[in-house]
Design a protein that fits this description.
Four copies of one chain form a homotetramer.
Chain A lengths: L1 E2 L10 H10 L11 H14 L4 E5 L2 H12 L4 E6 L3 H4 L4 H4 L4 E4 L8 H12 L9 E8 L10 H14 L2 E6 L2 H5 L10 H4 L2 E5 L9 E5 L2 H4 L2 H7 L8 H11 L3 H22 L12 E2 L2 E2 L1 H8 L2 E2 L1 E5 L5 E6 L6 H16 L1
Parallel strand pairs in A: 1-11, 3-4, 3-5, 5-6, 6-7
Antiparallel strand pairs in A: 2-8, 7-8, 9-13, 10-13, 12-13
């Protein structure tokens, strides 16, 4: 059984594993203060072209919860798309930290600067203010949970409205490598100009685990290590994260590995289209959301693993197929062949 | 200037004030363990016809926050109408206690048993469960924030779906007296049969301050005094709350005082209609939501205080007018007169 | 039965009650934005001789929890005497808000600047820092829970060490009136010079309920109304608190009423001494802590209510007797008489 | 430079690394629901001789915070030694979850059943109860933070007092392997009989990272996966933890690897004693706490890394030396040689 169910099915990139093997017997200080973490931070800063404050944590839910808890005051909330990861799939981690997620309707998983402006204005009306949660942050994912991409202009507009109203703009880059490799009009070095905090995902982009949280304003980064320790997010053997991120960023591995996934996704996109299937969202990254009739889904399920994403108002079912840095030519070819068969039936 | 801006503009009913005056010099033990609190609990139990566990707290936001924090486990959330007080006007108090409010669209401020069932089923799907907040409670207000009333059948259906799925059903009765006096088909003694926890509001129904939280299941009430003290909701001079609730419930004052407000509201309802104005919600309780043209609103504002409630999609503005136990005949007459004038213009 | 069990046994001062009676039928806006609250704030500012930002809340536990939650960041803690109210008698309200109380041993209920310095230094050592809670606030009560008083010099030293290390110094004045009336070397107008935040207790000093929180630094006060609303501490009929504090502070009632209690306490202090009983703490305010043999305690219990405070290492029991603004000459005389009898036996 | 500064300086045991290498390219479902996690749970259950409910999480602070948050109600607290990890070195993680740590003085890092009984009784007195945090759990570490070991009798007594009063007894086994290998009178299979929840540490006992939380009562385990996800403690590539624990427990590697560390520690214990140095605590596990004069410490620091633990009242400094599964014969020999030199000087 070949699985396209997610992009965190395998271990890690061979280059990453090799680093862990080579350094296994070394002794180093803990909690992210070792040489490998230092070098990894330097490597990432070079790619960002920015003196960012960078911290490594184990996972994405934790990264989101820590950043939001660190930046917001108790009476403040975070604006997010209603399909945003923090709004839907983190078991209330943000609320457990004391903060309301102020959701906006999100066509294709994206929100706009105008929506943010509207939330801010509504809060400032006479009958809201201190009786309601104060919006103080905007959260989006790039690419979104629907596989769509924000353009440079869209992120710039969100950044501008945040700057105007004193909100912190946080981009969750759990799958950012796939955005960078997708023909997006933003380079990694553009991000410090369009947001205040960025997470660079490792788990879904070739590492065993790990996210790098990048603060682009010194004031936001202060004392973040306390928050990491308190949240249980400071890894004792912190070098394990440093080593892995160093392997990704000391050269172009981060985007290169994602590029392979995008190539595979493009082939599958063409194959689904050729087989006559529509997509629920028009995506350019590593996730595909074809609408499959029950018979087709059933037939593919005999050979492949993939997950239902949602049921449309008309009853049709949207499925998610992911490629990743680990997807092989033969896995793609097998699905292409299967789709040809479906066409024939 | 006469104000119809809310139902908590004045002090308290004369009968309540008299009690405070008479007992002012008495010594009594604190924290709600005095004789007046005991008698007040007994009086309320007689009206409820139920051996409820009853606790007195100072305010409504606190009451909601404490009940929800006490009943839910950290990973659980509460289902509520999107217009519910806990979802909108408590500055994130529920989230500050760690819990997500799972909102449902709410025509006229009300949610249905079918909506609750849908939230529960969605949570149980393979791709939700522990990645999402577990629904464990339903919150509604009677009357709702839009002044509408749930029928006995509607509350019964909500109760049934809660029982079926093990959810706790909590009714926020901040204005319950007005529902009871409005020709609702539920008596106070019906509530222990249709919900598990009920708050009986005093602040908006004739007391200086105070809500009585009534638990209809012993298991829910255990250790609630700890939660009250921890939340800062256990009044040192607890007898002040007991005395006031005793004055309301030792006879029929609770519903009787509200009845006067309903009479006033009915007169105003007729006067607005006669003046040709529509209502945004069809209400039977003490709140009216007329849609007023700018000129009419401006003219009324010269004599009366009242608040904007919302702007309709077509740009028209809905205003809120409240009557209360303290509304006088002459106040109502003044507004009736003013509405006649508007008609004439 | 005459009770000396606490200083919150009765209702309120006659002057305060009169105000509530006179204004009962008036209409006013809610949530502390009315004229009475405004006037009360002005009156308190005159007494403080300082442009303080002042907020009224219902109770003391709530006041402490809100101030601490508002001032601290998630990874910060508050230094307090081990006998401090927040450390012992608030059911973990501070921890429920997410913060550790860093307790210091406290002879007679008081901590010193040297102790604060030591906590700060310990935290800064290489093996503490982000692995431990960051001290960011100092909490003391004046008078303390043991009835003792800080001198101007002691508070000045605590203030200096706080200023030096960037800590916020908060004084819980739940019983401050009794300190002011006790021959303390601090006037109310001295407090803005020795601390950053002060609560002025009303509940134990002649009001039905209420504490006034005074911020002496604008930066600390920002957005506090959000915290009040979120914590359920913003009273709907806010004028009730304003009216009461206005009655206390528009003239000298606050200290004058407390003065009566101190006179009564002084008489009882002499009576206990004359009867041959020692005190566990040497106090000047309205609480007395005599060490009573079982027979004496038993005999007094037939006529009076009072509470055990602690058991000394040698097995003897310390009891607490409180006087208050409401204590009468005849109540004091009755206890004096009873103590004379005990001497005779 | 050879480091004895901690027991988490290196990567992982070769057998563990081998497993990660062999399985790197495999696809498996996430979040701990894969075959390796299932097998690892089975292997641990065989060692425990108990049908425990077992969950894998990344780190120890997270494990403690999640277990305590899951088991306690909002108004409850956890009793712990004042030197316990949760009380000192977790940056207030337990308080951030809303709970007070009720500390007891702890000679040699250990608390007794009598101390627990005293805390429970104090809470039940008339003037404590709902004004104070309700003790509902006992936390101890085995071995303790001071390297000492609880005997079977001591743990049995703690278990008995917990059972009697309905408290949950949780043992933090971050270094349990070293206790098991130290001639402790408890086997792993004894633990389900002496506590209700146990964490089995991997990070300090040969894994890259990971702790196994074992619930010995089904009622305690319910819905724990929600808490894990909400806390950010559910690893996406969960098999990484399963694989590592499987390598430790499919045979005797867990205790065998720790045995080597104990052998090294014993040699160093003799070497320090021979050099004339005392120990602050009498330990049998992998941590040594020699009291070193400044000159000796300085000389050793030229060759070795190790950390100060505390300063004794008489001014002498206690240092900590750790051995681990990774300590080599030559590292031990080097320190033995250095200690011989110090004797000669």
């Amino acid at each position: 059984m070949i699985s396209f169910a997610s992009d965190y099915l395998e271990g890690c990139l061979p280059e990453v594993l090799q680093r862990l093997i080579e350094t296994n017997a070394e002794q180093s200080v803990g909690y992210g203060e070792d040489e490998y973490c230092r070098s990894a931070r330097e490597a990432i800063r070079r790619h960002l072209d920015c003196e960012a404050d960078i911290h490594f944590v184990v996972g994405g839910t934790m990264a989101n919860a820590m950043v939001i808890r660190h930046v917001l005051l108790p009476h403040q909330g975070v604006i997010a798309p209603e399909s945003g990861h923090i709004a839907v799939h983190e078991t209330g981690a943000i609320e457990a930290g004391g903060h309301k997620v102020l959701t906006c309707p999100a066509a294709n998983g994206k929100i706009t600067a105008a929506q943010v402006e509207a939330v801010v204005q509504a809060h400032r009306s006479d009958f809201a203010r201190e009786h309601t949660v104060q919006p103080a942050m905007v959260y989006v994912s790039q690419p979104t949970e629907c596989g769509t991409l924000y353009t440079k202009e869209e992120l710039g507009a969100l950044h501008a409205v945040c700057e105007q109203h004193g909100l912190t703009f946080y981009i969750d880059g759990a799958r950012l490598a796939y955005a960078l490799a997708s023909g997006s009009d933003l380079l990694l070095s553009d991000y410090p100009r369009v947001c205040h905090v960025l997470s660079l995902g490792g788990t879904k982009c070739g590492l065993l685990m790990g996210e790098a949280i990048c603060f682009f304003r010194k004031t936001l980064a202060g004392d973040f290590r306390y928050v990491m320790k308190q949240s249980g997010g400071m890894l004792a053997k912190g070098r394990l994260l440093g080593l892995q991120f160093l392997a990704l960023f000391e050269n172009d591995l981060y985007v290169r590995a994602a590029g392979k996934a995008i190539g595979c996704a493009d082939r599958l996109r063409r194959a689904f289209s050729a087989a006559g299937f529509d997509f629920a969202f028009s995506t350019g990254a590593n996730q595909l959301f074809p609408v499959l009739p029950p018979a087709a889904a059933k037939q593919l399920k005999t050979q492949f693993d993939f997950e239902p994403w949602q049921t449309l108002p008309d009853g049709r079912v949207v499925w998610r197929f992911c490629t990743s840095w680990a997807t092989t030519e033969s896995q793609v070819a097998a699905l292409e062949d299967a789709l040809l068969t479906i066409v024939d039936t």
